């Protein structure tokens, strides 16, 4: 079964929940806004379903609700932010704000973000850059727990879902947003399918013997299987670059077994922000972006498709729909959220039915 919740009600509830864990109202609201917006845009894998994991990590001491980003190194156009294991949503926002402030004078800025809890939906930070008129590129790795994704040609787990994001601004429109896991699907989407009792798409998972399966239980019950990379060797190659640029360079912490695996979620990110005006042809750039977007939109739809979309448009359509009709949450996910709310200190009367 599935319930439906109004976004504003859900946002208030999540804000209160994280306030009870000791977070300030500003931090709690930032995290709640981020999670609920992920649901509104159709990325339930990065939405409020993450609350039980966050509360568990707070209770285990792996997530510091009071922490903010610390500028560890400032080399002008190169910045390094240490998240001090705070909420990734807060650290990511602070690092992005630093990048946007700096790029105005440097034309391009590279920001490393290390040691933060789950950053959430990486597209959120790209959208901030795109709406401000800048291009951004993000390489992210995921550590702190056992790997979940097998390399191309293998069946053992060696990495995690390692997101990649690239955003291009559009004058007078929402930016184009490519935001994706480098695994066949995001691990959170496997979790959502598992909680709902659904299958996952073919080609996403293998069982413990390396045989293809659509059963998400192989990621949660022994003997464990693995996620595969998207696009075969190409997706695997991009995942390795995210691991080495986000992890080795920005974070100095990769999925190799010499580093800690304590069951938490740690993200590192290497982010580039570029001012298109630095090339001197801003109007030409904008004109070409619009002309190419229009050219793509003019494509005759293939059978089974209503029209051709550019990256970011499916999320905008889902945002409009769920803003009107509410956010669907399956019963198992909501039960986990209710348990987490109780652990955070909320009374039964404070938890929406």
Structure report:
The chain has 353 residues and is α+β, with helices and mostly antiparallel strands. It has ten helices and twelve strands. It has two domains: 1-61 and 299-353, Malate/L-lactate/L-sulpholactate dehydrogenase, four-helix barrel (Hypothetical Oxidoreductase Yiak, Chain: A, domain 1); 67-183 and 228-281, Ribosomal Protein S8, Chain: A, domain 1. The strands form three sheets. A seven-stranded mixed β-sheet has the order 2-3-4-11-5-6-7, sandwiched between helices. A three-stranded antiparallel β-sheet has the order 9-8-10, with no helix packed on it. Helix 1 (7-20) packs antiparallel against helix 2, helix 3 (51-59) runs parallel beside helix 10 and helix 4 packs parallel to helix 5 (123-131).
Low-pLDDT parts are none
The succession of helices and strands, N to C, reads EHHHEEHEHEEEHEEEHEHHEH
Categorize the overall geometry. Answer: globular
Strand content: 15-25%
Supply the helix-strand structural class: alpha+beta
- Give the C-level CATH assignment of the largest domain: Alpha Beta
CATH third-tier fold name of the largest domain: Ribosomal Protein S8, Chain: A, domain 1
- Output the radius of gyration: 20 Å
**What is the helix tally?**
10
**Oligomeric status:** single chain
Mean pLDDT: 97
In total, the number of strands is 12
- N-to-C CA distance: 14 Å
Range of helix content: 25-40%
In short:
This protein is an alpha+beta fold and 353 residues long. Helix content is 39%, strand content 19%. Helix 1 (7-20) packs antiparallel against helix 2.
């Amino acid at each position: 079964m599935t319930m439906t919740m109004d976004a504003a009600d859900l946002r208030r509830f999540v804000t209160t929940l994280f306030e009870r864990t000791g977070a300030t109202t500003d931090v709690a609201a930032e995290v709640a806004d981020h999670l609920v917006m992920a649901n509104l845009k159709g990325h339930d894998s990065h939405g409020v379903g993450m609350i039980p994991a966050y509360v568990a990590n707070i209770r285990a001491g792996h997530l510091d609700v009071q922490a903010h980003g610390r500028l560890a190194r400032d080399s002008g156009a190169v910045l390094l932010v240490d998240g001090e294991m705070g909420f990734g949503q807060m650290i990511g926002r602070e690092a992005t704000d630093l990048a946007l402030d700096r790029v105005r004078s440097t034309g391009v800025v590279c920001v490393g973000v290390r040691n933060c809890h789950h950053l959430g939906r990486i597209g959120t930070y790209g959208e901030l850059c795109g709406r401000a008129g800048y291009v951004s590129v993000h390489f992210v790795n995921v550590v702190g727990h056992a790997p979940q994704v097998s390399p191309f040609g293998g069946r053992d787990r060696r990495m995690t879902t390692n997101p990649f994001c690239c955003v291009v601004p559009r004058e007078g429109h929402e930016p184009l947003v490519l935001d994706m896991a480098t695994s066949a699907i995001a691990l959170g989407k496997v979790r959502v399918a598992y909680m709902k009792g659904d299958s996952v798409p073919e080609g996403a998972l293998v069982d413990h013997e390396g045989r293809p399966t659509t059963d998400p239980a192989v990621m949660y019950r022994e003997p464990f299987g693995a996620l595969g990379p998207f696009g075969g060797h190409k997706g695997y190659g991009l995942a390795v670059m995210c691991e080495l640029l986000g992890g080795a360079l920005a974070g100095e912490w990769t999925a190799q077994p010499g580093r800690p695996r304590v069951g938490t979620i740690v993200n590192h990110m290497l982010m580039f922000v570029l001012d298109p005006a630095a090339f001197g042809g801003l109007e030409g750039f904008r004109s070409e972006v619009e002309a190419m977007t229009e050219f793509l939109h003019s494509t005759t739809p293939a059978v089974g498709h209503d029209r051709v979309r550019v990256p970011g448009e499916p999320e905008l359509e889902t945002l409009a729909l769920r803003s009107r009709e509410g956010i669907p949450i399956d019963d198992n996910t909501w039960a986990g959220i209710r348990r987490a709310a109780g652990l955070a200190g909320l009374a039964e009367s404070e938890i929406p039915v």
